[in-house]
Amino acid sequence: ALDTDATTAVTTCPYCGNPTAIAGQMSKAVKPDFVIPFRLEKKDAIEALKNYYKGKRLLPKSFTNGNHLDKIQGVYVPFWLFSGTSHADMTFEGRDNETSRHTVNSTMDCMNLSKQFDISDLSNNFRGDVQVTRTKVYDVHRKGDVSFSRIPADGSSTMPDDLMDSIEPFDYKDLKPFSMAYMPGFLANRYDVEKEEVQPRIIDRAEHTTADEMRASVHHDSVTEKSRDIRTDLKKPEYAVFPVWLLSTSWNGQNFLFAMNGQTGKMIGNLPIDGGKRAAYLGGITVVLSAIFYLIFRLMG
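Structure (tokenized):
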């Protein structure tokens, strides 16, 4: 018997080691359009996990040595790939500041300066240097289209969305027409999240990126968004499976899941925090900030 669940499409036979397709799971209706093959091996994932622990200041010392790798599995995770166009119409307020310094030596200087910069509270008896900041305000309108290609969203309910999003991007240069020839040695899950369910995530992502692009085209000292109207048209999504190494570890009775992009090597996962180290770290920050504020007040005094 093979150890599978409802979404397993391809598994490895425990007796012969060959890939075994689960009946109906890779039928024409649910067969992926594309695959990105695994580029990295199991040993690469294990080494990447060790490196992931390094440099984490708040990680308990005992975690690195006491953490036990329970399971590691290469999985072809199902993804929906969306392309389309966002149509944006946005307005902004832009502000530019110009600062100048002026020396006042006479009543006439005061009068001229007050008139030039519309300064009402400058006394005619004032003598010395005056710093004037002038702010110019602009109404800015941006309208345009932003096209996007193959934004991924995982189609597996068993895969945490935050982990799958965090190991992006995948390099589409390696995108191949799907073939069972890439499956040996790995599991492959069939999607169980319909494309309609992930569309809101895709639209939200596309529209946030579009708004950022529009905002980046406005060049002023400060920019405030006043209004936005963004509409997104999606094309029929493509269906692909992408390579992911999943690593399950345990420590102090807790389980930790890590995911590594099987193409690029990008690793992500949650780590425990040493309470004592965190308190010391926050305490150190507080001491430094207190010293900075003390120096500022002394200088101001």
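The radius of gyration is 29 Å. The helical segments are 42-53, 61-66, 107-117, 161-166, 195-216, 275-300.
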